Amino acid sequence: MSTKNWPLWEVFVRSKNGLEHRHFGSLHAADAEMALENARDVYTRRNEGISIWVVESIDITASNPENNGELFEPAQDKVYRHPTFYDLPDEVKHM
Amino acid sequence: MSEEQIKNLEIQFEARIARDEKIEPKDWMPEKYRKTHLRQMSQHAHSEIIGMLPEGNWITRAPSLRRKVALLAKVQDEAGHGLYLYSACETLGTSRDELYEQLHSGKAKYSSIFNYPTVSWADMGAIGWLVDGAAIINQVPLCNTSYGPYARAMVRVCKEESFHQRQGYEIMIKLANGTDEQKEMAQDALNRWWWPSLMMLGPTDAESIHTAQSMKWKLKRKSNDDLRQQFIDQTVPQAELIGLTIPDSDLKWNEERGSYDFGEIDWDEFWQVVKGHGPCNKERMNARVGAWERGEWVRDAAMAHAEKKQKQKQAV
Questions:
Q1: Residue range A17-39, pLDDT digits in tens
Q2: Which residue in the set A5, A41, A64 is minimally distant from B26, CB to CB?
Q3: Which of B19, B36, B40, B144 is the least buried, fewest Cβ under 10 Å from its Cβ?
């Protein structure tokens, strides 16, 4: 039995310039360098990316779906944040 | 949590699935949902990993460079698919090590088709054509399953898998159009892989204990018998096209049903193989466990190296 297991890493891939890095999945690796190499083999075998980020999963802080109410519901009744909330006469163009 | 609270959560959960909402790792889910998914996803991951062995057997003896690079790429994809699926399992709180332990101890199952031997090069054709063909039929509906990480993994798997089937069928075309001996080899491979491929789609609906619940959770969209019929209906014309004969004397087009009728499947053989008495069960497990054990010092060394580098970095 190994003394210590390889930690889990999350992999983000930019598929082409102009697009953001997107979460692709996760993998195990001993360190960041190996995580990058493994990510290349596991997630970009068919030209899926031109840039890879890896971050140890343990370093990600995630919101808890149980708190979704207090986190996200307040935005629902703030319709005045959207342009359609404001009344303008039909004659106004380009606004 | 009280029983009533759990009951309430369950009702909300089932309603979400009925509305076609996806479930993500941190969402509340019934224990049975978690367990069923873990069982199916890990079984699927194990099948990809063990599935590399029968084909790995032929990489060094592929008849041309073209065939060799294709087979190598296919086996590498299978490793990748296993890894996507293990990652999906880990989102449900089971570690990679536990998953491996379940495989290595024999507690977890993998697809019984991989317990058949690959005795000739034509088997590479038959596996790609039939085994991957049956797998695709099983997997395509899973791209819409309710558990987000599983569905996303399956989208990637399905995208990559279509080349697997085509490269297999291409091997069969070539052999079927070759010398008498080559044609005979292709027919022999079809004879041996046909019935296990049909079994691969799972026990008959009457015998399948998980179907009803899995349908409700969209972990399954079609029953085993429906998937099997679909596989037969699409594969028979492919065999005819290249002049091979499906080894089933009861196979007959049924005009009324718009499907093929087919002969009795030997379910005793299926259960024997599932229970560990197939031709290669022991060989597969020995190969897998052996590779894992022989690789231990490499894993340990990589970890020691990473720790050493980390320490050096901190010392600067």
A1: 999 999 999 999 999 999 999 99
A2: A64
A3: B19
**Cα end-to-end distance, chain A, whole Å:** 67
Interface contact A2-B303, CB threshold 8 A: yes
Instruction: Assign 3-class secondary structure to chain B.
Output: CCHHHHHHHHHHHHHHHHCCCCECCCCCCCHHHHHHHHHHHHHHHHHHHHHHHHHHHHHCCCCCHHHHHHHHHHHHHHHHHHHHHHHHHHCCCCCHHHHHHHHHCCCCCCCHHHHCCCCCCHHHHHHHHHHHHHHHHHHHHHHHCCEHHHHHHHHHHHHHHHHHHHHHHHHHHHHHCCCHHHHHHHHHHHHHHHHHHHHHCCCCCCCCCCHHHHHHCCCCCCCHHHHHHHHHHHHHHHHHHCCCCCCCCCCEEECCCCEEECCCCCHHHHHHHHHHHCCCHHHHHHHHHHHHHHCHHHHHHHHHHHHHHHHHHHHC
Q: Parallel, antiparallel, or unpaired for β B252-254 and A51-56? A: unpaired
Q: What is the per-residue DSSP string for chain A?
A: --SSPPPEEEEEEE-STTS-EEEEEEEE-SSHHHHHHHHHHHH-TTS--SEEEEEEGGG-----GGGHHHHHGGGGG-GGGSGGGS---TT----
Binning pLDDT at 50, 70 and 90, where does residue A1 land? very low
Chain A residues touching B309 at Cβ < 8 A: 31
Q: Is B7 on the interface with A (CB under 8 A)?
A: no
| Partners of A25 in the β-ladder | A11
Kindly state whether A4 is in contact with chain B, defined as any CB-CB distance less than 8 angstroms. yes
Per-residue pLDDT tens digits for B86-134: 999 999 999 999 999 999 999 999 999 999 999 999 999 999 999 999 9
Tokens at B263, concatenated: 């002969």
Reading across the β-sheet that carries A8-14, which strands appear in turn? A21-28, A8-14, A51-56
Residues B144-195 pLDDT 10s: 999 999 999 999 999 999 899 999 999 999 999 999 999 999 999 999 999 9
